[in-house]
Write a structure and sequence with these properties.
Length: 405
Amino acid sequence: MSNNKITSPIQSLKNLNVGIIGSGTMGSGIAQVAATSGCSVKLYDANKEALRKAETTLDKILSRLVQKGRIDAPEKLRIQNNITYVTQLKALSTSNLVIEAIIENLEIKKKVFSELETYVPNHCIIASNTSSLSIASIASALKNPERCIGIHFFNPAPLMRLVEVIPAIQTKPQVLQDTTEIITNWNKTVAVAKDTPGFIVNRVARPFYGEALRIYEEGLADFATIDHSLKSLGGFRMGPFELMDFIGNDVNYTVTETVFTAFYFDPRYKPSFTQKRFSEAGYLGRKSGIGYYKYDANGKKIEDHTISPPIVSDTLKTQIFNRVLIMLINEAADALFLNIASAKDIDNAMVKGVNYPKGLLAWADQKGITYCVTELDKLYNEYHEDRYRCSPLLRKMAKEHKTFF
Ligand SMILES: NC(=O)c1ccc[n+]([C@@H]2O[C@H](COP(=O)([O-])OP(=O)(O)OC[C@H]3O[C@@H](n4cnc5c(N)ncnc54)[C@H](O)[C@@H]3O)[C@@H](O)[C@H]2O)c1
Protein backbone atom coordinates (compact mmCIF):
# COMPACT_ATOMS: atom_id res chain seq x y z
CA MET A 1 0.00 0.00 0.00
CA SER A 2 1.37 3.43 -0.91
CA ASN A 3 2.64 5.80 1.77
CA ASN A 4 0.40 8.63 0.67
CA LYS A 5 -2.72 6.61 1.62
CA ILE A 6 -5.23 8.81 3.38
CA THR A 7 -6.32 7.45 6.77
CA SER A 8 -9.98 6.52 6.85
CA PRO A 9 -12.21 7.75 9.67
CA ILE A 10 -13.88 4.34 9.48
CA GLN A 11 -11.91 2.25 11.98
CA SER A 12 -11.77 -0.91 9.93
CA LEU A 13 -12.89 -1.37 6.35
CA LYS A 14 -13.66 -5.03 7.09
CA ASN A 15 -16.69 -6.35 9.00
CA LEU A 16 -18.50 -3.06 8.67
CA ASN A 17 -22.00 -2.13 9.70
CA VAL A 18 -23.72 -1.88 6.34
CA GLY A 19 -27.17 -0.44 5.78
CA ILE A 20 -29.09 -1.29 2.62
CA ILE A 21 -32.19 0.58 1.50
CA GLY A 22 -34.55 -1.40 -0.73
CA SER A 23 -34.83 -5.16 -0.48
CA GLY A 24 -35.77 -5.84 -4.12
CA THR A 25 -33.69 -7.64 -6.75
CA MET A 26 -30.55 -5.57 -6.22
CA GLY A 27 -30.79 -4.66 -2.52
CA SER A 28 -31.27 -8.26 -1.42
CA GLY A 29 -28.37 -9.43 -3.65
CA ILE A 30 -26.06 -6.72 -2.27
CA ALA A 31 -27.10 -7.68 1.28
CA GLN A 32 -26.07 -11.28 0.54
CA VAL A 33 -22.68 -10.13 -0.79
CA ALA A 34 -21.95 -7.92 2.25
CA ALA A 35 -23.18 -10.53 4.75
CA THR A 36 -21.11 -13.26 3.11
CA SER A 37 -18.03 -11.05 3.56
CA GLY A 38 -18.70 -10.81 7.29
CA CYS A 39 -20.41 -7.41 7.45
CA SER A 40 -23.31 -6.84 9.78
CA VAL A 41 -26.15 -5.84 7.45
CA LYS A 42 -29.39 -4.01 8.16
CA LEU A 43 -31.73 -4.40 5.21
CA TYR A 44 -34.52 -1.82 5.14
CA ASP A 45 -37.56 -1.58 2.86
CA ALA A 46 -40.67 0.57 3.07
CA ASN A 47 -42.67 -2.49 2.06
CA LYS A 48 -42.87 -5.29 4.68
CA GLU A 49 -43.90 -7.82 2.05
CA ALA A 50 -40.70 -7.06 0.07
CA LEU A 51 -38.63 -7.71 3.21
CA ARG A 52 -40.37 -11.03 3.85
CA LYS A 53 -39.80 -12.03 0.23
CA ALA A 54 -36.10 -11.08 0.44
CA GLU A 55 -35.70 -13.24 3.55
CA THR A 56 -37.36 -16.33 2.03
CA THR A 57 -35.53 -15.91 -1.28
CA LEU A 58 -32.16 -15.69 0.48
CA ASP A 59 -33.01 -18.84 2.45
CA LYS A 60 -33.76 -20.68 -0.83
CA ILE A 61 -30.58 -19.40 -2.51
CA LEU A 62 -28.38 -20.40 0.43
CA SER A 63 -30.07 -23.81 0.76
CA ARG A 64 -29.31 -24.45 -2.91
CA LEU A 65 -25.65 -23.52 -2.29
CA VAL A 66 -25.57 -25.99 0.62
CA GLN A 67 -27.11 -28.72 -1.57
CA LYS A 68 -24.48 -28.08 -4.24
CA GLY A 69 -21.74 -28.30 -1.59
CA ARG A 70 -20.61 -24.71 -2.22
CA ILE A 71 -21.14 -23.71 1.41
CA ASP A 72 -21.89 -25.75 4.56
CA ALA A 73 -24.89 -25.39 6.88
CA PRO A 74 -23.03 -23.33 9.56
CA GLU A 75 -21.89 -20.92 6.81
CA LYS A 76 -25.50 -20.56 5.66
CA LEU A 77 -26.52 -19.72 9.21
CA ARG A 78 -23.62 -17.28 9.62
CA ILE A 79 -24.68 -15.37 6.48
CA GLN A 80 -28.33 -15.32 7.57
CA ASN A 81 -27.42 -14.16 11.09
CA ASN A 82 -25.45 -11.28 9.57
CA ILE A 83 -28.64 -9.79 8.12
CA THR A 84 -31.33 -8.01 10.12
CA TYR A 85 -34.51 -7.03 8.31
CA VAL A 86 -35.74 -3.63 9.46
CA THR A 87 -38.84 -1.56 8.80
CA GLN A 88 -37.51 1.84 9.89
CA LEU A 89 -34.87 3.92 8.08
CA LYS A 90 -33.70 5.08 11.51
CA ALA A 91 -32.52 1.53 12.25
CA LEU A 92 -29.55 2.18 9.90
CA SER A 93 -28.19 4.79 12.36
CA THR A 94 -25.05 2.79 13.25
CA SER A 95 -23.97 2.22 9.63
CA ASN A 96 -20.49 2.97 8.28
CA LEU A 97 -21.76 2.47 4.76
CA VAL A 98 -25.29 2.68 3.35
CA ILE A 99 -26.15 1.49 -0.15
CA GLU A 100 -29.48 2.57 -1.58
CA ALA A 101 -31.25 0.31 -4.11
CA ILE A 102 -34.80 1.65 -4.29
CA ILE A 103 -36.94 2.70 -7.22
CA GLU A 104 -35.09 4.58 -10.03
CA ASN A 105 -36.63 7.98 -9.29
CA LEU A 106 -34.45 10.99 -8.52
CA GLU A 107 -36.90 12.86 -6.29
CA ILE A 108 -37.65 9.79 -4.17
CA LYS A 109 -33.95 8.92 -3.84
CA LYS A 110 -33.12 12.50 -2.81
CA LYS A 111 -35.87 12.49 -0.18
CA VAL A 112 -34.63 9.21 1.30
CA PHE A 113 -31.00 10.44 1.28
CA SER A 114 -31.75 13.66 3.11
CA GLU A 115 -33.75 11.79 5.79
CA LEU A 116 -31.02 9.15 6.10
CA GLU A 117 -28.38 11.82 6.69
CA THR A 118 -30.15 12.91 9.87
CA TYR A 119 -29.65 9.42 11.38
CA VAL A 120 -26.17 8.22 10.32
CA PRO A 121 -22.79 9.30 11.75
CA ASN A 122 -20.71 11.91 9.89
CA HIS A 123 -18.18 9.39 8.61
CA CYS A 124 -20.85 7.15 7.04
CA ILE A 125 -20.48 6.71 3.27
CA ILE A 126 -23.82 7.09 1.50
CA ALA A 127 -23.99 5.31 -1.84
CA SER A 128 -26.51 4.75 -4.61
CA ASN A 129 -26.83 1.71 -6.85
CA THR A 130 -28.55 3.79 -9.55
CA SER A 131 -28.11 2.64 -13.17
CA SER A 132 -29.02 5.86 -14.91
CA LEU A 133 -29.20 8.87 -12.59
CA SER A 134 -26.29 11.22 -12.03
CA ILE A 135 -24.50 10.73 -8.72
CA ALA A 136 -23.96 14.51 -8.52
CA SER A 137 -27.72 15.09 -8.55
CA ILE A 138 -28.36 12.45 -5.85
CA ALA A 139 -25.46 13.79 -3.72
CA SER A 140 -26.90 17.30 -3.92
CA ALA A 141 -29.68 16.19 -1.53
CA LEU A 142 -27.11 15.78 1.27
CA LYS A 143 -25.79 18.46 3.62
CA ASN A 144 -22.45 16.69 3.29
CA PRO A 145 -22.37 15.61 -0.39
CA GLU A 146 -18.63 14.73 -0.20
CA ARG A 147 -19.61 11.42 1.42
CA CYS A 148 -21.77 10.36 -1.50
CA ILE A 149 -20.68 7.93 -4.24
CA GLY A 150 -22.16 5.55 -6.81
CA ILE A 151 -21.69 1.81 -6.22
CA HIS A 152 -23.22 0.08 -9.22
CA PHE A 153 -23.66 -3.68 -8.90
CA PHE A 154 -24.80 -5.89 -11.76
CA ASN A 155 -27.66 -8.36 -11.63
CA PRO A 156 -27.43 -10.92 -9.98
CA ALA A 157 -25.16 -9.10 -7.51
CA PRO A 158 -23.78 -12.25 -5.79
CA LEU A 159 -22.70 -13.75 -9.13
CA MET A 160 -21.47 -10.81 -11.21
CA ARG A 161 -17.85 -9.98 -10.44
CA LEU A 162 -17.89 -6.35 -11.56
CA VAL A 163 -18.87 -3.32 -9.51
CA GLU A 164 -18.62 0.15 -11.04
CA VAL A 165 -17.64 2.78 -8.48
CA ILE A 166 -18.61 6.31 -9.47
CA PRO A 167 -17.33 9.36 -7.62
CA ALA A 168 -19.44 12.49 -8.16
CA ILE A 169 -17.73 15.86 -8.57
CA GLN A 170 -18.56 16.45 -4.89
CA THR A 171 -17.04 13.14 -3.64
CA LYS A 172 -13.98 13.34 -1.36
CA PRO A 173 -10.96 11.27 -2.59
CA GLN A 174 -11.01 9.49 0.78
CA VAL A 175 -14.53 8.21 0.11
CA LEU A 176 -13.49 6.82 -3.28
CA GLN A 177 -10.46 5.14 -1.72
CA ASP A 178 -12.46 3.58 1.14
CA THR A 179 -15.26 2.45 -1.15
CA THR A 180 -12.83 0.80 -3.55
CA GLU A 181 -11.17 -1.02 -0.65
CA ILE A 182 -14.49 -2.16 0.83
CA ILE A 183 -15.85 -3.50 -2.46
CA THR A 184 -12.54 -5.23 -3.21
CA ASN A 185 -12.74 -6.85 0.25
CA TRP A 186 -16.16 -8.12 -0.84
CA ASN A 187 -14.34 -10.09 -3.52
CA LYS A 188 -15.50 -7.94 -6.41
CA THR A 189 -13.58 -6.31 -9.24
CA VAL A 190 -13.89 -2.54 -9.08
CA ALA A 191 -13.95 -0.36 -12.20
CA VAL A 192 -13.90 3.34 -11.42
CA ALA A 193 -16.09 5.34 -13.79
CA LYS A 194 -16.78 9.01 -14.38
CA ASP A 195 -20.25 10.25 -13.45
CA THR A 196 -21.60 10.24 -17.03
CA PRO A 197 -24.68 8.50 -18.52
CA GLY A 198 -24.45 4.71 -18.50
CA PHE A 199 -21.12 4.83 -16.60
CA ILE A 200 -18.93 2.24 -18.42
CA VAL A 201 -20.95 -0.87 -19.22
CA ASN A 202 -24.31 0.64 -20.09
CA ARG A 203 -22.57 3.11 -22.40
CA VAL A 204 -20.00 0.90 -24.11
CA ALA A 205 -22.49 -1.96 -24.65
CA ARG A 206 -25.05 0.17 -26.55
CA PRO A 207 -23.83 -0.75 -30.07
CA PHE A 208 -24.17 -4.48 -29.30
CA TYR A 209 -27.93 -3.91 -29.38
CA GLY A 210 -28.14 -0.76 -31.51
CA GLU A 211 -26.01 -1.92 -34.44
CA ALA A 212 -27.61 -5.38 -34.44
CA LEU A 213 -31.06 -3.74 -34.63
CA ARG A 214 -29.86 -1.43 -37.39
CA ILE A 215 -28.51 -4.37 -39.42
CA TYR A 216 -31.90 -6.07 -39.04
CA GLU A 217 -33.79 -2.91 -39.99
CA GLU A 218 -31.71 -2.53 -43.15
CA GLY A 219 -32.88 -6.03 -44.09
CA LEU A 220 -29.36 -7.45 -44.18
CA ALA A 221 -30.23 -10.43 -41.96
CA ASP A 222 -32.82 -11.83 -39.57
CA PHE A 223 -32.51 -12.06 -35.76
CA ALA A 224 -31.20 -15.63 -35.76
CA THR A 225 -28.53 -14.93 -38.37
CA ILE A 226 -27.26 -11.86 -36.51
CA ASP A 227 -27.18 -13.78 -33.21
CA HIS A 228 -25.44 -16.73 -34.85
CA SER A 229 -22.77 -14.45 -36.40
CA LEU A 230 -21.88 -12.79 -33.10
CA LYS A 231 -21.79 -16.10 -31.21
CA SER A 232 -19.93 -18.22 -33.74
CA LEU A 233 -17.41 -15.63 -34.94
CA GLY A 234 -17.11 -13.45 -31.83
CA GLY A 235 -17.52 -15.98 -29.05
CA PHE A 236 -20.28 -13.96 -27.34
CA ARG A 237 -22.29 -16.21 -25.03
CA MET A 238 -25.59 -14.80 -26.27
CA GLY A 239 -26.47 -12.97 -29.46
CA PRO A 240 -27.84 -9.41 -29.22
CA PHE A 241 -31.47 -10.47 -29.79
CA GLU A 242 -31.24 -13.35 -27.32
CA LEU A 243 -29.74 -10.93 -24.81
CA MET A 244 -32.41 -8.26 -25.38
CA ASP A 245 -35.08 -10.95 -24.87
CA PHE A 246 -33.29 -12.02 -21.69
CA ILE A 247 -33.01 -8.48 -20.28
CA GLY A 248 -36.53 -7.59 -21.43
CA ASN A 249 -37.22 -5.34 -24.41
CA ASP A 250 -39.00 -2.82 -22.18
CA VAL A 251 -36.01 -2.52 -19.81
CA ASN A 252 -33.38 -2.51 -22.57
CA TYR A 253 -35.32 0.03 -24.66
CA THR A 254 -35.71 2.35 -21.65
CA VAL A 255 -31.96 2.22 -20.91
CA THR A 256 -31.20 3.08 -24.57
CA GLU A 257 -33.69 5.94 -24.59
CA THR A 258 -32.36 7.28 -21.26
CA VAL A 259 -28.75 7.16 -22.47
CA PHE A 260 -29.74 8.79 -25.82
CA THR A 261 -31.57 11.64 -24.05
CA ALA A 262 -28.78 12.08 -21.49
CA PHE A 263 -26.22 12.41 -24.32
CA TYR A 264 -28.18 15.30 -25.82
CA PHE A 265 -29.47 13.06 -28.62
CA ASP A 266 -26.10 11.93 -29.97
CA PRO A 267 -27.12 9.73 -32.97
CA ARG A 268 -24.67 7.08 -31.82
CA TYR A 269 -27.14 6.08 -29.11
CA LYS A 270 -30.34 6.43 -31.14
CA PRO A 271 -33.00 3.91 -30.06
CA SER A 272 -34.64 1.64 -32.63
CA PHE A 273 -38.25 1.57 -33.77
CA THR A 274 -38.09 -2.20 -33.99
CA GLN A 275 -37.36 -2.52 -30.29
CA LYS A 276 -39.87 0.19 -29.42
CA ARG A 277 -42.63 -1.69 -31.28
CA PHE A 278 -41.68 -5.01 -29.66
CA SER A 279 -41.86 -3.31 -26.29
CA GLU A 280 -45.20 -1.60 -27.07
CA ALA A 281 -46.67 -4.89 -28.29
CA GLY A 282 -45.72 -6.58 -25.01
CA TYR A 283 -43.19 -8.78 -26.86
CA LEU A 284 -40.80 -8.30 -23.96
CA GLY A 285 -38.81 -11.52 -24.33
CA ARG A 286 -38.44 -14.42 -21.95
CA LYS A 287 -40.65 -12.93 -19.25
CA SER A 288 -43.66 -12.53 -21.60
CA GLY A 289 -43.14 -15.80 -23.53
CA ILE A 290 -42.45 -13.92 -26.76
CA GLY A 291 -39.89 -11.43 -27.96
CA TYR A 292 -37.60 -11.85 -30.94
CA TYR A 293 -37.98 -15.56 -30.15
CA LYS A 294 -40.65 -17.68 -28.43
CA TYR A 295 -40.21 -19.12 -24.92
CA ASP A 296 -41.91 -21.86 -22.91
CA ALA A 297 -43.29 -21.42 -19.37
CA ASN A 298 -39.82 -22.02 -17.92
CA GLY A 299 -38.30 -19.28 -20.07
CA LYS A 300 -36.59 -21.81 -22.37
CA LYS A 301 -36.30 -20.79 -26.02
CA ILE A 302 -38.67 -22.78 -28.27
CA GLU A 303 -36.90 -23.87 -31.44
CA ASP A 304 -39.24 -24.02 -34.47
CA HIS A 305 -38.10 -27.19 -36.25
CA THR A 306 -40.69 -26.77 -39.02
CA ILE A 307 -38.66 -23.90 -40.46
CA SER A 308 -35.36 -24.86 -42.02
CA PRO A 309 -32.50 -22.57 -41.04
CA PRO A 310 -31.62 -19.93 -43.63
CA ILE A 311 -28.52 -20.58 -45.67
CA VAL A 312 -26.23 -17.71 -44.91
CA SER A 313 -22.92 -17.04 -46.58
CA ASP A 314 -19.77 -16.80 -44.50
CA THR A 315 -19.20 -13.38 -46.06
CA LEU A 316 -22.45 -12.04 -44.64
CA LYS A 317 -21.76 -13.52 -41.20
CA THR A 318 -18.30 -11.93 -41.18
CA GLN A 319 -19.73 -8.61 -42.34
CA ILE A 320 -22.30 -8.63 -39.50
CA PHE A 321 -19.79 -9.60 -36.83
CA ASN A 322 -17.18 -7.06 -37.98
CA ARG A 323 -19.72 -4.25 -38.11
CA VAL A 324 -21.01 -4.80 -34.56
CA LEU A 325 -17.51 -5.35 -33.19
CA ILE A 326 -16.08 -2.23 -34.79
CA MET A 327 -18.89 -0.12 -33.35
CA LEU A 328 -18.23 -1.61 -29.88
CA ILE A 329 -14.50 -0.92 -30.21
CA ASN A 330 -15.22 2.67 -31.28
CA GLU A 331 -17.45 3.19 -28.24
CA ALA A 332 -14.81 1.76 -25.87
CA ALA A 333 -12.08 3.90 -27.46
CA ASP A 334 -14.22 7.01 -27.18
CA ALA A 335 -14.95 6.25 -23.51
CA LEU A 336 -11.19 6.16 -22.96
CA PHE A 337 -10.71 9.31 -25.06
CA LEU A 338 -13.20 11.14 -22.82
CA ASN A 339 -11.60 9.78 -19.62
CA ILE A 340 -14.68 7.84 -18.52
CA ALA A 341 -12.36 5.16 -17.11
CA SER A 342 -8.89 3.69 -17.60
CA ALA A 343 -8.23 1.27 -20.49
CA LYS A 344 -7.85 -1.57 -17.98
CA ASP A 345 -11.14 -0.73 -16.23
CA ILE A 346 -13.02 -0.40 -19.54
CA ASP A 347 -11.87 -3.85 -20.64
CA ASN A 348 -12.44 -5.41 -17.22
CA ALA A 349 -15.91 -3.90 -17.06
CA MET A 350 -17.05 -5.51 -20.31
CA VAL A 351 -15.56 -8.91 -19.49
CA LYS A 352 -16.70 -9.07 -15.86
CA GLY A 353 -19.88 -6.99 -16.07
CA VAL A 354 -21.44 -8.43 -19.24
CA ASN A 355 -19.31 -11.52 -19.93
CA TYR A 356 -17.74 -10.32 -23.20
CA PRO A 357 -15.25 -12.90 -24.46
CA LYS A 358 -12.46 -10.29 -24.60
CA GLY A 359 -11.86 -6.70 -23.59
CA LEU A 360 -12.77 -4.41 -26.49
CA LEU A 361 -9.53 -2.39 -26.39
CA ALA A 362 -7.44 -5.57 -26.33
CA TRP A 363 -9.58 -6.75 -29.27
CA ALA A 364 -8.79 -3.49 -31.10
CA ASP A 365 -5.06 -4.11 -30.59
CA GLN A 366 -5.49 -7.60 -31.97
CA LYS A 367 -7.44 -6.45 -35.04
CA GLY A 368 -5.03 -3.56 -35.59
CA ILE A 369 -5.86 0.08 -34.92
CA THR A 370 -5.47 1.03 -38.59
CA TYR A 371 -7.94 -1.70 -39.54
CA CYS A 372 -10.44 -0.28 -37.01
CA VAL A 373 -10.13 3.25 -38.44
CA THR A 374 -10.47 1.99 -42.03
CA GLU A 375 -13.60 -0.03 -41.21
CA LEU A 376 -15.24 2.88 -39.37
CA ASP A 377 -14.42 5.27 -42.20
CA LYS A 378 -15.92 2.81 -44.70
CA LEU A 379 -19.19 2.84 -42.72
CA TYR A 380 -19.10 6.63 -42.40
CA ASN A 381 -18.46 7.06 -46.12
CA GLU A 382 -21.30 4.72 -46.94
CA TYR A 383 -23.92 6.28 -44.66
CA HIS A 384 -22.70 9.83 -43.99
CA GLU A 385 -24.22 9.55 -40.52
CA ASP A 386 -22.57 10.93 -37.41
CA ARG A 387 -23.33 7.60 -35.76
CA TYR A 388 -20.36 6.09 -37.64
CA ARG A 389 -17.80 8.80 -36.80
CA CYS A 390 -14.47 7.33 -35.77
CA SER A 391 -13.18 8.23 -32.30
CA PRO A 392 -10.39 10.83 -32.51
CA LEU A 393 -8.36 8.60 -30.22
CA LEU A 394 -8.35 5.70 -32.69
CA ARG A 395 -7.38 8.01 -35.53
CA LYS A 396 -4.52 9.54 -33.51
CA MET A 397 -3.30 6.12 -32.40
CA ALA A 398 -3.32 4.79 -35.96
CA LYS A 399 -1.20 7.75 -37.10
CA GLU A 400 1.25 7.22 -34.25
CA HIS A 401 1.28 3.40 -34.63
CA LYS A 402 0.22 2.99 -31.00
CA THR A 403 -1.67 0.19 -29.25
CA PHE A 404 -3.87 0.26 -26.13
CA PHE A 405 -1.84 -2.29 -24.17
N1 LIG B 1 -32.47 -4.73 -11.67
C1 LIG B 1 -31.28 -4.54 -12.23
O1 LIG B 1 -30.85 -5.28 -13.13
C2 LIG B 1 -30.40 -3.39 -11.76
C3 LIG B 1 -29.02 -3.46 -12.00
C4 LIG B 1 -28.21 -2.44 -11.50
C5 LIG B 1 -28.77 -1.37 -10.84
N2 LIG B 1 -30.13 -1.31 -10.63
C6 LIG B 1 -30.67 -0.17 -9.86
O2 LIG B 1 -30.92 -0.61 -8.53
C7 LIG B 1 -32.04 0.07 -7.98
C8 LIG B 1 -33.07 -0.93 -7.51
O3 LIG B 1 -33.45 -1.75 -8.60
P1 LIG B 1 -34.17 -3.15 -8.37
O4 LIG B 1 -34.21 -3.82 -9.71
O5 LIG B 1 -33.58 -3.87 -7.20
O6 LIG B 1 -35.65 -2.69 -7.98
P2 LIG B 1 -36.81 -3.54 -7.28
O7 LIG B 1 -38.08 -2.96 -7.78
O8 LIG B 1 -36.58 -5.00 -7.40
O9 LIG B 1 -36.65 -3.16 -5.71
C9 LIG B 1 -36.82 -1.87 -5.20
C10 LIG B 1 -37.24 -1.99 -3.76
O10 LIG B 1 -37.21 -0.66 -3.17
C11 LIG B 1 -38.32 -0.53 -2.32
N3 LIG B 1 -38.61 0.90 -2.20
C12 LIG B 1 -39.14 1.71 -3.15
N4 LIG B 1 -39.22 2.96 -2.67
C13 LIG B 1 -38.72 2.95 -1.40
C14 LIG B 1 -38.52 3.93 -0.41
N5 LIG B 1 -38.85 5.19 -0.62
N6 LIG B 1 -37.97 3.54 0.75
C15 LIG B 1 -37.63 2.25 0.98
N7 LIG B 1 -37.80 1.27 0.07
C16 LIG B 1 -38.34 1.62 -1.10
C17 LIG B 1 -39.43 -1.32 -2.96
O11 LIG B 1 -40.39 -1.73 -1.99
C18 LIG B 1 -38.65 -2.52 -3.55
O12 LIG B 1 -38.63 -3.60 -2.66
C19 LIG B 1 -32.51 1.04 -9.05
O13 LIG B 1 -31.91 2.28 -8.83
C20 LIG B 1 -31.97 0.39 -10.34
O14 LIG B 1 -31.75 1.34 -11.36
C21 LIG B 1 -30.95 -2.31 -11.07
